Amino acid sequence: MFLTRRSSSSRVSALLYPLLGACFWASVAGYKPVIIVHGLFDSSEDFKNLKMFINQSHPGTNVTVIDLFDRSASLEPMWKQVEGFKAAIYPIMQNAADGVHFICYSQGGLVCRGILSTLSEHNVNSFISLSSPQAGQYGDTDYLKYLFPQFVKSNLYHLCYTGVGQRISICNYWNDPHHRDLYVNSSDYLALLNSERANPNATEWKKNFLKIKKLVLIGGPDDGVITPWQSSQFGFYDNNETVIEMQEQDLFLRDVFGLKTLAARGDLIICSVPGVQHVFWHSNETVFHTCMEKWLE
């Protein structure tokens, strides 16, 4: 009986000690902090599942969902949101000697691009863009019907490409392929980020953006909100509403803010997952394990 107990105890120890060692290593060495930026009409409360996935996969990770511009406040102009989120995020960066990771969902992915472009001293390792309209938005979605019931995609440019319209976040990245000149000349946000309009800061912004170690672009054909869904991976419509993939886009070919450089470095990751509707990207465990987990070391 004594031998049996001792043998059993040894087996338990053999299993327990490596686990305790792993936990100790995680607490001592630590995983890089993860900063999550929400999207349109979201709040920090919507990311409980994603936080759980991260902490199960990487125990001890410091995960912060920035609680700013929640719900209707997410309609504030994009540059205002960039400055607000930047002020909240910068202290976390300063306390992370080995850097941080970004997970930025939907509209939040464009907020994060603004931060990465304009913050020269950022220390972001992985920038995970989770179903974000990186090349712009152009679609008759439920969001559009809710926000602008008197408009459809074909005539929203009448509002968005005005001074009043540019005070609404979605208009800052509304990209009407049939009114390209109006978009380029009127967009106070996306056209500048993409250097589609002359931008005196373009060189500096590109340098800042390229400080990231990995860019992970996540999206899928069943999203239902990001239109076209390929915008989540920098594809977009031409003037016939035919999708032109990222590698054929002018902003890639001319490497205006660093996409081509990232691809050449091997640091541009495309992750497409079918069957995921827009509101479920951050709570889908398969998406986390397939597209995010490995980039959060």
From TrEMBL:
It is found in: Lysosome. InterPro entries: AB_hydrolase_fold. Its EC number is 3.1.2.2. Its main location: other. One of its GO terms (cellular component) is lysosome. The keyword Signal applies. It holds the Pfam family Palm_thioest. Keywords: Glycoprotein, Hydrolase, Lysosome, Signal. It catalyses: S-hexadecanoyl-N-acetylcysteamine + H2O = N-acetylcysteamine + hexadecanoate + H(+). Belongs to the palmitoyl-protein thioesterase family. Catalyzes the cleavage of thioester bonds from S-palmitoyl-CoA or S-palmitoyl-N-acetylcysteamine (unbranched structures) but does not have activity against palmitoylcysteine or palmitoylated proteins, branched structures or bulky head groups. Conversely, hydrolyzes both long and short chain fatty acyl-CoA substrate. This is palmitoyl-CoA hydrolase. The lineage of its organism: Eukaryota, Metazoa, Chordata, Craniata, Vertebrata.
